[in-house]
Amino acid sequence: MFAGSALAHKGVMNSSVKARMDAMSAIAQQMKTLGKMAKGVTPFDSATARLAAAEIAKHAGDTPKLFEPEEDDPKSEAKAIIWDNFSDFTIKSNHLEDLAVELSVTILTKKDLNSAMKSLGATCQSCHKLYRD
Ligand code: HEC
């Protein structure tokens, strides 16, 4: 399951940076599962969708801890202002975690999934636009 991300992270020398990239890739992997279902590429299944949301919540919960050390790597896309605004960065991680926890219970229909994709996507964007190159 993480084969793709392992390849993508080849060349990352700093293991702390690699760990945080792996967590982000794991989140993206779950988003892909949800996205495929939302688009009808795979059939909608409430349990699978809720499990994907739970996985996102888990990794979002780890995010502040993984980013806390101010580590860098030539391959990193993290902006240095993360560590000037670490409380805001933490709030944004917590926001994703809380939302994903909620969705891990509330995605019951395809319609729920479609609105979940929007709210989740907005959360990724709100952090990336400030803190990722
Ligand atoms: C609290 C901030 C924050 C949130 C929320 C967040 N990200 Fe990220 N994300 C980052 C940062 C910072 C990086 C750059 C990490 C680095 O390169 O060191 C990143 C990198 C990534 C990467 C690239 C990983 C790699 O292999 O280099 C992917 C993919 C990604 N995020 C997906 C997502 C998705 C999908 C969501 C929403 C479901 C999300 N992220 C939510 C901060 C966040």
Describe this entry's structure for a reader.
This protein is mainly alpha-helical. It has a single domain (14-131), classed as Cytochrome c/b562 (Four Helix Bundle (Hemerythrin (Met), subunit A)), CATH 1.20.120. The protein is 72% helix and 0% strand. The chain is built from 5 helices and no strands. Helix 2 runs antiparallel to helix 5, helix 3 (46-67) packs antiparallel against helix 4 and helix 4 packs antiparallel against helix 5. It is globular, with a radius of gyration of 15 Å. 25% of the residues are buried. Bound molecules: heme C. The site of heme C has 26 residues, from helix 2, helix 3, helix 4 and helix 5. Heme C is lined by residues 8-9, 17, 20-21, 24-25, 27-28, 31, 56, 63, 76-78, 89, 92-93, 96, 120, 123-124, 127-128, 131-132.
**Small molecules bound in the structure, each named once:** heme C
What is the mean pLDDT? 94
CATH structural class: Mainly Alpha
Which H/E pattern describes the elements? Answer: HHHHH
Instruction: Compute the separation of the termini in Å.
Output: 26 Å
Strand content: under 5%
Rg on CA atoms, Å? 15 Å
Helix segment tally = 5
Q: What CATH architecture label applies?
A: Up-down Bundle
